[in-house]
Design a protein that fits this description.
single chain, mainly alpha, Serine Threonine Protein Phosphatase 5, Tetratricopeptide repeat, 12 helices, globular
Length: about 270
Amino acid sequence: MILHPKESGGLQTALCALAFTFALFFAPAGVSAQSRPDPAVLKSVIEAKARLQNAVDTWDAGLMAEARDLFLGCLLRDKGGSPYLLYYVALADYTLATFYLAEENPAESDPKITEGESYLQKALAAAPGFGEAMALYGYFLGIEIANHPDRAMTLGMESFGYFDRAESAEGSNPRVFLLRGIYQLYVPQAFGGGPDSSLAYLDKAIALFEKENITDPLLPSWGRDEALTNAALAHKQKGNTAKAIELLKSALALNPRSGRARGELAAIEK
C-alpha cells in the first residue's frame, strides 16, 4: 500500500530535489506544488505512510491510531497547508472507521467517519480539484449510512456525486476507481451495486495501477494489492473461485505481508 524508500545523506537531498521538480510539473489537478512540506516534515510523512501500511497489513487498530497521530503531527508542523497532509489524516481515519465498522462498534466508527469527512472538506477547500480526496469523501458518506440508515437516500446520492466528480477530475488515478469499486461491492444490487458493478471499477483500477509509477513520497501510492484483493472478493461472490485464488496470489506476490489477502486465500483453499 505505501511507498517508503530508505535513503540517506546527499542522495536523500538529491531525491527530495528531484521529487520537488516532479511535483511542480506533475501534481494532480487542483493540488498546488507550492504547498509542499519541508524536507523534515516529508521525512515524517514517509514514516507515517510506512506505519499505516503495517497497520493495514496486520489489521491493528492501535497501529492505525499511531499512524494517524504521526500524520497529524506532520500537519501541525507544516507551514504550507499541504492538502496531502489533510488527506493522509483522513486516510488513517478511513482505516480506523473500516476497522470499527467490521467490529460493529458505532461508538468508535462514527467519530472517525466524522473526523475523516472534516479533514477531507479542508483538503478540498484548499485544492478543489483533488479527485482522490473527492473519492475518499464519497466513500466516507457511503459508510456513514451503515451507522445512520435513516440518511441513506441523501447520503447515497451525495456519495455518487462525489465519486463521479472524482472520476472527472482524476480519471487516470487508480485509487479513485478502487474506492468506488469497494463501495459498489457492498451496495445492494437493487440499487446498482454488487460484484459485477464492483468489478467494472476494480478492473479499471487494476489496469491503472499497472501504469502507475509513483516516485514522489508525498503522493499517495497505496492500494494496488487491495484492488486485487477486493476483485478476488467480488469474483468469490460470483462463484469464480479459481479467479479469486489467482487474484489473491497476485496480491500476495505484491505484498506478502497482507494479512487480509492471506486470510481470504486460506479460507478459500481449506
